[in-house]
Every structure is written in C-alpha cells, then in structure tokens.
Amino acid sequence: MDIIYFLTIFAASIAGLVWGILGSSLPGLSASIVMALLLPFTYTLPPMPAIVMLACCYIGAEYGGSIPAILIRTPGTNSAAATVIDGYEMNRQGRANEALGISLWSGVLGGLCGLAMLVMFTEPLARLALLFRPTTYFGLGILGLSVIASLSGKSLLKGATAAVLGLMIATIGTDPISGVSRFTFGSPDLLEGITPLFVMVGLFAVTELMTRTGVPSASIKPGASIRVRLPRWPMMKKISRAQGIGCTVGSLEGLMPGAGGSVAAFIAYNEARRWSKEPEKFGKGSEEGVAAPEAANNAVASTALIPLLSFGIPGSNSAAVLLGGLLIHGLLPGPRLFETNSDVVTGIYIGSFIADISQIVIGTLILPVCIWLVNRPRPYLAAFIYALIVSGTYTVHQSSFDVGIVMTAGLLGYFMRYFGFPFLPAVLGVILGGLIESNYRRSLVLSGGDFGIFFEDPIAIAFFAIAALIVVGALVNEARAAMRARAAWSA
Amino acid sequence: MRKDLFASVGLLGIAAAYYLASLDIPTSTLEDEVGPRGLPTVLTVLLVVLALALGARALLLAPKAKPAANDNEDAEAPWPRAIGMLALGAFYIMASTIVGYAPALFMLLLAVIFYEGMRPSWRVFVVAAGGAAFFYLLFDIVLGVRQPEGLLF
Hints:
A: 21 helices, B: mainly alpha
C-alpha cells in the first residue's frame, strides 16, 4: 500500500476521531451537529480523506456521548442515554475511572464488531435491509417500548405512566402523515417537535442540579485516582456476555435506517440484564449495564454505513451529513461506489479500523482530564455544568426557546422524581413515539386500513413475539416480588 | 402512598388538559384513517386508566414501612431551594436577551457558585469570568456556533 495513502488515512481518521469525541462530549452537540461543524473543513480536502474524517468523526461522536453521561449524568448524544443508568451510578460510588474504562473498551469492541460486519457482509446485509418495511419499524418500536417493562424500577405501573408521558411529548409538533400541527399553540418553535436530547438533558442533568443543590456530594470520592482503569482479564470475562449482546444488537440495528443507536443501546441493556448472572445489580452500578449499551451504540456507527454506502439511504441525521459529504465531493453512493471509488471505500474501512483502535489511546489521554474536572469543588462543578447545558442546548437550533424547553423538562423531572416515576421510560417514549406512530399509520395507509398487514411481515412478528416475552417476563417478576413482599410482611 | 394519590390526581389533570388541547388539532384533507388525533386520544385514555390504577392502588394497599435513612447518599435539597436553582436558568434566558451571551453566562456562573454556598472572594470572580470567556471562545469562536445576542452586547 502507498505510504502516502496510508498516512493520509491515518491523519484524517485521528483528526475526525478527536473532533468527534471532544465535540459530542459537550451536551447538546449531537453526532450529526459535530459532523456538520466539521463538514466545511472538509471542502478543501480531496474526497478520500474528507470522507474518512467524517466517518471517523461519527465513530468518535458515538463514543464521546458516554463521557458526560457517566460523569455528569448528561448524555452527550441520544444513544448515550442508556449508559447514564449504571455509568453515573458507578461514578457516584467513586468508580468513574472504572466506568469510563469499561465504556471505552466496550466501545472499541463494538466498533470493531460493527466494522467486521461492514467489511465482510455489506452485500448480504444490504439486501436484508431492503426487506424492512413500515410494519418492521413499527415492530421495532414496540420492541423498544417493551424494554420499559424492565426499566421501570420498583413499579411497572409508574414506568408505564412515565412512558405515556414521554409519548405525549413526542406528539408535539407536525403530524407525520397529514402535516397538521399538534399541540404547538401557535408557536413556530414547536413545529419540529421536541428534540429528545432536550428532554434527556432536562430530566437527567437539570433535575440532578436541582435536587443536589446545597447537598454535599459525599459519594464522589475527591481523592480517587483520575487514571482511567481499563478492564483487566477477570472484568473482561465478566462483561464479555454483555458486550456480545451489545455487538449483536447494535450490528443488526445499524442496518435499519432510522432506528439509531439509542434504541439499540436500550434493547442491548435490557437483554444484557435478562441474560446476566447478576441482574439485581443493574441500575445500581453494574459493569455489564455500561458495557452492553456502549458496545451497541458503537457497533451501530459502523453498520449504519451499510445502507448508506450500498443504496444511498441515510439512516440517521449523522448518516445524512455523511451523505452530504459524499455528494459534495462528487461521490454517488450505491453499488457503483465500490467499483468506481474503491479507494474511498477502502479508506473508510481502514480509517474506521484505525479510529476504533486509536480510541483506546486517545480516550486514555482525554478521560483523566475529564475525571479531574468533575472532581472540582461542587459549587464550581455545578456552575460549569449549568453553563454547559445552556450553551450546548442553544447550539442545536440557536434558540433560547430550546433552553426554556430544557428547563421545563428539568421541572417535569423534579416532579417525576418527587413522586417516584422513573425517567427512562419517559425518555424511551419521546425517542420512539415518532417511529411507532408514523410507521403504524404508514402501514395502514399501505394496506388500505387492513390490520392484517402487521401479521404478514415475519420480521415484525418476531419483534412482537420478543416484546410480548419481555413484558410477560417483567409482569411475572413483579408479581413474584409482590408475593415475596407480602409473605415477608405477614411473617 | 399519599404521594401516589396526589400523583394520580395530577395525572388526571394532565390527561384532561392534553385532551382539551387535542380538540384544537385541525383536520386535513390528507388525513389517513387514524388521523392526527388518533394517538393523542389513545394516550389520553391510557393516562386516565393508569392514573386511576395508581390512585386505586394508593387507596387499597397498606402503606409500606418507611425505609431507614441511608446517610446522605440520596439526600435532596428542599423544594424551594431546588426551584431556586431552576430560576437561575430562567434568569439566564432573560439576561442573555438583554446583555448578551458572555455577560449573562458570567452572571449565571457567579450566581450558581454563590447559590451552592461558596463565599465571595476574588477567586470566585476570576473563575466565573474565566468560565464565561472559555465558553464564549469555545462556542462562538472555535465552533463558530452563534450564541444569544443581547440588546446591549
């Protein structure tokens, strides 16, 4: 291989990776925004390094979102929402460096797994992606929603209520089929709906700032080491099952345009808990609870390129930015891309590999600084988190209205916390509401109102069956727990 | 359990308000069978059912024994103090439209540091000013993402 060609890929992938990690570690800057900010810098570059830089930026951004999720309970990207659950809990137990190490290691494995799928199975997987219909997406949405059953904490009833509240928030904006506005109250700012990230930042970060104000943060040990602790062999063995689940779910989910890393992360989290030897530790600082979603959302970053490169279908906002990059440089995605511009495709493969491997080195260099920052005195930390929230939120649409949405979500989160409603089902409701409603209605439009269409799609039927199993399993568990509690009460 | 009863009443209020607002959704010639009001109606019914179930559970089930307090791990600020923290954010939104991003952020940083119990000192002012300058440089200059412009700056 030409050394210049390799060095160009190397430089582009490292630059893209660093930009992606740093950018998405700022709450509010999603992977797509970070990539969009990079896009103008790539205009002047030749096509190959430009596309490699954007693809590696995507990889870095998918990983970077987990840093604030673990350290300040603020998911940097949508797909890092599931990492908050156990990542932040580990941080509170003074194990931030361990959580970041597990997230880094799982991210690398997930990325490599997704890349292997991308390189080896692009053609058959691309054909599989063509089988996905609106009914399949509806089935996927229902499967995602069923995860609520295990994210509800102590009460399934409260979890379901929180999910309905989330779905209600998701109905705000323009109706996906008829185009009429719903619950916008004449405000143009609400026409696009409520960005899920705002709800997450409000529910997690603002609520945390509100409830912990003036309370000494004794759980975060100030004297703890700031070095990232990458998992050693026993830990690697312990989390390998969760990582395997994350890699599998993420690799398959990435194929589905529109599904995104957040759904993959939640499903992986749920499955990891179901198959874990220590399911009771989930939600209380479980290492597997960090490993599964991180492996999943990093795998998505690679396999999401399959429908994009094969058919030119951008499955997410980030993939759409990458598509923009391809078109700007005169590259037309599709089967011919692999023949006419094989240097670019090979560059993406090699660059992604370099980025995945380099994450370990770059993460190990960046993360101690982040750990040091969050161990500053509480008043300074709270002030800087607040400043980061208001600044990061504003960057999404350059609107102070959005900052107001985040504050409102914070107030909602405060009340939810006070009354004991879990946040995660609400977050899932906001994320999945649009996917479920639009594909349900699209399916019915296609079938002329015949509900039988949902039972003609084998993939959708499989999703419904898994969803039913998850819900029934959770109901049985809750009933058992209630019986045990009653027995203990009467004893 | 009393909390659950209050929550149930609150949720019924939300369901009622949501349903009333859904009546204002306009009709369209492009409407499908379900229509834009379909999901909101289903969600209203679901929320009412869940709220009633929550209320019924609160009334019927015996109250659980209160768990013992577990050091300050889950200690929370009293509600007026928590709302005060949120008010600082609201103040920032207003201030940024008048004095602009960097001065408003300086005030927010300063206010939060004091609100968290730090005593006034030259160090606090330096940290707040440094923080405002850092965020201005990061977002406005390095990333090129415009932050709020005020009437004054």
